[in-house]
Amino acid sequence: MSDIVERTLTALPGLFLQGQPGGGPAAAKAPFSSRLGGLVRGVTALTSKHEEEKLIQQELSSLKATVSAPTTTLKTMKECMVRLIYCEMLGYDASFGYIHAIKLAQQGNLLEKRVGYLAVSLFLHESHELLLLLVNTVVKDLQSTNLVEVCMALTIVSQIFPREMIPAVLPLIEDKLQHSKEIIRRKAVLALYKFHLIAPNQVQHIHVKFRKALCDRDVGVMAASLHIYLRMIKENSSGYKDLTGSFVTILKQVVGGKLPVDFNYHNVPAPWLQIQLLRILGLLGKDDQRTSELMYDVLDESLRRAELSHNVTYAILFECVHTIYSVYPKSELLEKAAKCIGKFVLSPKINLKYLGLKALTYVVQRDPTLALQHQMTIIECLDHPDPIIKRETLELLYRITNSQNVTVIVQKMLEYLHQSKEEYIIVNLVGKIAELAEKYAPDNAWFIQTMNAVFSVGGDVMHPDISSNFLRLLAEGFDDETEDRQLRVYAVQSYLSLLDVENAFYPQRFLQVMSWVLGEYSYLLDNEKPEEVINRLFKLLMSDSISSETKAWLIAAVTKLTPQAQTSSTVERLIQEFTVSLDTCVRQHTFELKHLHENVEVMKNLLPVNKSCEDLVVDASLSFLDGYVAERLSQGAAPYKPHHQRQEEKLSQEKVLNFEPYGLSFSSSGFTGRQSPAGISLGSDISGNSAETGLKETNSLKLEGVKKLWGKEGYLPKKESKAGEEMEASPAPLENAVSENMDQAGTRRDQAPVLAQSKEEKEKQLLASSLFVGLGSESQINLLGKADNVSHKFRRKSKVKEAKSGEAASARDLTCSSLHSPSHVAHEENDYLTALQDRGSAEAEEFPLGSELLDPESVSELPVVGKLSDCALSAPSLFADSDMEVFHPPSSAAASASAAAPVTAEIALASSFLEETTEDVRSGRVEVCSDETVTMSSYKLWKDDCLLMVWSVATKSGSELKSANLDIFPAENFKTSEQPGCCLPAAEAGSTKTFQYRLQVERPFTEETLSGSVSYQRVDTHAVQLEFSVNLSLLDFIRPLKISTEDFGKLWLSFANDVKQNIKMSEPQAALPSALKTLQEKVRLHVVDVRGNEGLLACRLLPSTPSLLHCRVHADGLALWFRSSCPALPDCLSYQCQKAIEGS
Amino acid sequence: MIRFILIQNRAGKTRLAKWYMQFDDDEKQKLIEEVHAVVTVRDAKHTNFVEFRNFKIIYRRYAGLYFCICVDVSDNNLAYLEAIHNFVEVLNEYFHNVCELDLVFNFYKVYTVVDEMFLAGEIRETSQTKVLKQLLMLQSLE
Predict the structure, then answer these.
(1) CA atoms within 13 A on the CB side of A206
(2) B82, B104, B124 ranked by CB distance to A40: nearest
(3) Which of A23, A345, A509, A535 is most exposed, with the fewest beta carbons within 10 Å of its own?
């Protein structure tokens, strides 16, 4: 260690590149307490880790004595703390001092407090329990008049603060946003940023204040608020589009050098601020032409202004390029950005070259020609000594892979893979290779070889999906039968030859794949008898390096092969060997094999050849046992009880409180877990222990055979056991084959005309031509190779994927329609529609809007009809009745102001909106108040995400209003979405005006009234105000929560708040179905599962507070047991449920 | 967002370790060792960036000291590289020609500097004059 000191001392003058020599003896400058100095010097002087440990332990024990002595002064404590920090920094445990650090922060004077806070911030982490003790100190310091104390408190809050204590300091920190000192305001903003990170919903209500911070007169405060905005915009960019203008203006000012010189860094104006703004703009402008247009100018200016004077300008340029490629494209800017990328790529500075590659990777799918331009540089980077550069180049190549260059690129990736040792890189790369191989494989042999390499290198660290996908691909096949057959034959052949290699080692995952494929498809081989395959599998089974999971796969494979084999002594040996295995899973499989082996006919029926994709019909109800069960019952046997019920009863007999009813028992139904496409397990329905677990099993067994373990609590899902074996380099045959392929690929390709160049150059040219083939303009079709399905050799029949994309599509539809719904139901059709309405019809019944209204023809008729009804007021119009609600959601004011779109378009929008609303459940219309002029009625619309209250104000005939306003009084337990009182400039006689409010619950309640007032002014008289109120029940905010039983079990355990309730009933046994039905209909609970005399239900309180209900029938009634994450909710719910059940 | 800041010397001795993410003590030591292993093997001609688990490390070497910042993969590499340099420039001003020993003996002051310049995992202050003003104000308390 002493040599380090020496080295350091000699390095002193040169520590800074630009530093002047001769800094003087540094130690002398530093005023430190002598003890600390001694310690540091002591540690530095030591030569071995062992000595250091001894010294520090000594120090720690003396410190321990000092800090816990009652006589220790705060000043000494401060010094001790610094030494403790030092010990912790070196990696020694100083946890005995934590509490003293908190005390020091609490009691010390300014300086001591500072050390205390520093120690706390270094010692503790966010969820450390001791941190709670600090809350009071922080609150006190936040209220202090001393700026330094406030600063320290804010600093600690922004570093570590217990999430659940945020409410204690939030108001204080909000106050600080108005503080006169910028540093305080700035730190307060960052503290709020931190809160937003750890508990976003706690700071939701202060979004307005964030806007204020953004407009702060101090640049620093504004810059701090950008952190929050970047985060929020990342989560949801649509909510902040209106700020685009502000961000653009700020960036313009920064770029234009309008900021104080303080913010310059090497003469570049506030580079970090610029970068932050550029990132925000990139997020805002993504896929949004209108927003993007606002920023083109400033992006152009940023590019121009960033003269290459300093490294930091490259940072800005890089971000700028990134933003230009993120926002809606503009060719002029793209051109400039492409040039800029060129500068990076061609730069001799390695950092810039790397970033250039990164930028290329980002843009290459948009603009593949750019990669083509720089192909020689890319080739050079492929062999760069810095692995990071190489890696980025591979990433780039991965993005430009198509069916023509896939072999070369995959080969390069495999080369890199064989060199890397880091798990993260291997996992990532292996996934990519598998993806490319699946998509673009030129032929069977190549595909299997590549996947072999993937499995042998990626082995047990790679994502399990890779092997399951591969097997599914083999099993489900493609459109072409012979092709399928060839692929399978090739796979079988290749695995057999791999297994014949002496002393080869393969990862468990690979062996599992092999055993499945051999078990399923070795019948395809003519020259290989099943007996021989069984022999090979048996040899593997007997090897020591095989995990028990793999053994189960191997035995399953043998089981599948046995009916095909004439006679095999190996099978008998295997049975002998493994029926006594200590591993229950293996033993079970062996027993299955043993019994089947005794009856070959059954076995052949049970294990037909090549039927892995056929659906298996399973008699889930176990009806074939009915006779037996009836017989036993008549003989007096006790009826079967499911496991969890037995367990619960046992516990209740023991009079032990059972807090975890679902944790163990419900997992028993989880054994259907489809994690491994293992061999078929025969026991699933034969030995399945109850009908209800069987229910889960009704459909196909398919590839995902059922694997399970007999555990303490019943059948359990078999966990993917992580075999920890290291994988070795893949065996030689693989590499040979791959490189052969590579050669073939090389010769097949038309060679680019090569000029007289050095051999090396030629090689590079050759490589380039093979890498970038298919990227040039002559083969434009392949440019979008990734999206191009036709070029995929292995088009998987992925039902799952289709289903998923279907879901996504429908989800998109939903959002679309809900996007339409809020606004744009504007003035004009307001005029038409309201004119059409039969007056006084507010209280009339509701009919869904007739579809004829939505026909284009009838739309064109509208004005005419309007006039008609105008003349004949009492005549029933074509569109009788009043259900033409024109909804005015929050943003309607703005939207209707800009209603310049053609009428038809609006009608279309309105129609989609109205269609949607008819899907939602709504309450009947109720008249809430009326006078001689207006009638006001309302109804509730139970939307999926909120409660919509719709009020319609109908003007009676003969009275014209000048304006009408609706005000909703604030209520304690819920909030109405902020909306300035809806205003109707003028209402003609007989028209109806509709107002719409979104309601959200703040905290649970049982009953509540929402009141408000409507005020209007008649043309002839003064203003009138009418008050009204509506009753709301908690049920208006309850929505079903559709979850699976397993999720129910998990959620149940995670909730702390529970309430139990007993409802007496005369005939409890019969009551469950009806009670569940009542709860489902009246309280809108979702019935998750019914098992025997128990029912599981789930719901959510809007917006998304889940609550669970477990109800069980017992001797004299129904026991309800609620749990939720929200403390007050179970109580309220229990009340509602009781009411519902007793009322029914 | 910054996940942690480390200052180590060539031998792997920690000179400063500031965490912006929750790790337990063993994990911290492991990270420190891993970072050291990853960074020190790199050539001066290599980039100043390394991929590290799910993050990346931006590092810069000054004499025998490695200044490492671990950030998210999506973050701007050069911006953080320059942030390191800015930080070192502030240290240089503050300690008047800083050297490793300054940092060794005044490690607690270095933490204060870090807290002034980085907060809540973000770059808080980049203006050298402002940071130094604040630091001197704090210094005057002693």
Answers:
(1) 27
(2) B104
(3) A535
Report pLDDT for B2.
93
Nearest by Cα to A140 from A132, A128, A148, A149: A149
**CA-CA distances (angstroms) from residue A932 to A158, A725, A929, A954, A1018?**
60, 86, 11, 11, 11
Residues 6+ apart with CB under 8 A from A850: A879
- The more confidently predicted of residues A361 and A651 is A361
Q: What is the mean pLDDT of residues B22-30?
A: 88
Cα–Cα dist A593/A502, whole Å: 28
CATH numbers and ranges of domains, chain B: 2-141 (3.30.450.60)
Cβ atoms of A256 and A298 within 8 Å: the answer is: no
Judged by a CB distance cut-off of 8 A, whether residue A85 touches chain B is yes
Q: Does B105 touch chain A (CB under 8 A)?
A: yes
| Token pair in block for residue A908 | 């279309």
Helix (H, G, I), strand (E, B) or coil at A506: coil
Q: pLDDT band for A704, please (50, 70, 90 cuts).
A: very low
Tell me the two tokens of residue A624. Answer: 């074939």
Provide CB contacts within 8 A for A285, sequence distance 6+: A244, A291, A292, A294, A295, A323, A326, A327, A328
Inter-residue contact A435 to A450 (CB < 8 Å) = no
Q: Is B64 near chain A, with CB under 8 Å? A: yes
Buried b (16+ CB within 10 A) or exposed e, A391-428: bbbbbbbbbbbbbbbbbbbbbbbbebbeebeeeebbeb
Q: Which residue of A has its CA nearest to B18?
A: A122
Secondary structure (H, E, C), A230-258: HHHHHHCHHHHHHHHHHHHHHHHHHHCCC
pLDDT tens track for A1052-1084: 777 777 777 777 776 766 777 888 888 888 888
For the stretch A34-44, pLDDT in tens is 788 888 888 88
- Helix pair angle (A827-836, A903-919), 10° resolution: 70
Least Cα distance to A126 among A88, A162, A169 occurs for A162
Report the residue of B122, B128, B137, B142 to disrupt the A interface, i.e. the one with the largest count of A CBs within 10 Å.
Answer: B122
C-alpha distance from B104 to closest chain A C-alpha (Å): 7
> Which residues in chain A have their CB less than 8 angstroms from residue B48's CB?
351
> Is A186 in the B-facing interface, judged by CB distances under 8 Å?
yes
ipTM: 0.95
- Number of other residues whose CB lies within 10 A of the CB of residue B41: 9
Cα angle value A845/A846/A850 (rounded, 5°): 135
User: What mean pLDDT do residues A516-537 have?
Assistant: 83
- Burial class, A872, CB count within 10 angstroms (exposed 0-12 / middle 13-18 / buried 19+): exposed
| Residue B93 Cα, gap to closest chain A Cα (Å) | 10
Predicted confidence at residue A959, as pLDDT, reads 65
Does residue A333 carry a pLDDT above 80?
A: yes
For helices A289-305 and A331-346, give the axis angle rounded to 10 degrees: 40
Q: Which residues pair with B55 in a beta bridge?
A: B52, B72
**pLDDT single digits (tens) A972-1025:** 777 776 544 444 445 555 667 777 777 777 777 777 777 777 777 766 666 777
